[in-house]
Amino acid sequence: MPKRGSGGSRFLYEPFEAAARLETHAQVNNERWRSLERRLGTIETSLERLERRLWLAVYGLAGFVLVRGVLTLLEFTQKTGNSG
């Protein structure tokens, strides 16, 4: 940002100061946007990992229920096969 000396009109310096402020504002906004994108990427990665863990838990529970059902059927057929 140019410094005003003792001479000259303020109309000579104000457009340059405004342009410098706009450029700085644009740089700050760009950096904020990059930071936001980086954080969103991290959140998306975390959500994908959580989703995989949840599906693993669902499949594990479904497998457990199926195994218990098969074991119950086997016990039932063994009991009815021995008594008949």
Task: Outline the fold blueprint.
Elements (H helix, E strand, L loop, with lengths): L9 H74 L1
How would you describe the oligomerization state of the chains in this entry? single chain
Question: What's the helical proportion of residues?
Answer: over 70%
Number of strand segments: 0
Radius of gyration based on Cα positions: 35 Å
Taken from the alpha-carbon principal axes, the silhouette is rod-shaped
Global mean pLDDT: 87
Reading the helices and strands in chain order gives H
Explain what you see:
- By secondary structure, the chain is an all-alpha fold.
- The protein contains 1 helix and no strands.
- The termini are far apart.
- The model has no long low-confidence stretch (mean pLDDT 87).
Kindly summarize this structure in a few lines.
The protein has 84 residues and is mainly α. Helices cover 88% and strands 0% of the residues.
What are the defining features of this structure?
84 residues; mainly alpha; 1 helix; rod-shaped
